[in-house]
Design goal:
GO terms for molecular function: metal ion binding. Keywords: Iron, Metal-binding. The structure is a single chain. The protein is an all-alpha fold. The protein has a single domain, classed as Four Helix Bundle (Hemerythrin (Met), subunit A) (Up-down Bundle), CATH 1.20.120. The chain has 5 helices and no strands. Helix 1 runs antiparallel to helix 2 and helix 1 runs antiparallel to helix 5. The two termini are 30 Å apart.
């Protein structure tokens, strides 16, 4: 099972949609890692996913917030708070605990990310539709 970027995730804003597709790619990387039974020690790959997600969301959220500001989007402040909470959650991931229970760590990361895709992108970002 992979996470598919379907039309109901489209905002109609090309650069935002492209950036959202990248978040789906990261979710699919996490899913592939979770289901790969040939890799025993997944710590480095999990760590790479967390770092990639941290770095990418900084770029994406800045781009999205700049766009919302440019159109004077009514809900831009509450939207930015959601972005901040997402970043806080990513930054609160205890990297030492990942090694102790790698499978649960991937499941937690994937659950958090999929929740974001479904409830933030689909329900909040899509309000930006053109």
């Amino acid at each position: 099972m992979h996470y598919e970027f379907t039309d109901d995730y489209l905002t109609g804003i090309e650069f935002i949609d492209q950036e959202h597709k990248k978040l789906f790619d990261i979710a699919n990387e996490a899913y592939d890692l979770l289901t790969n039974n040939f890799i025993n020690d997944k710590y480095d790959r999990i760590l790479n996913l967390v770092v990639e997600l941290r770095e990418y969301t900084i770029i994406h959220f800045a781009d999205e917030e700049k766009y919302m500001e440019s159109i004077q989007y009514l809900h831009r402040f509450s939207h930015k708070i959601e972005h901040m909470k997402f970043v806080e959650k990513l930054n609160s991931i205890n990297l030492e605990k990942i090694d102790a229970n790698q499978k649960d760590s991937i499941i937690d990361l994937l659950g958090f990310l999929v929740e974001w895709l479904q409830n933030h992108i689909k329900k909040k970002d899509c309000r930006l539709r053109k």
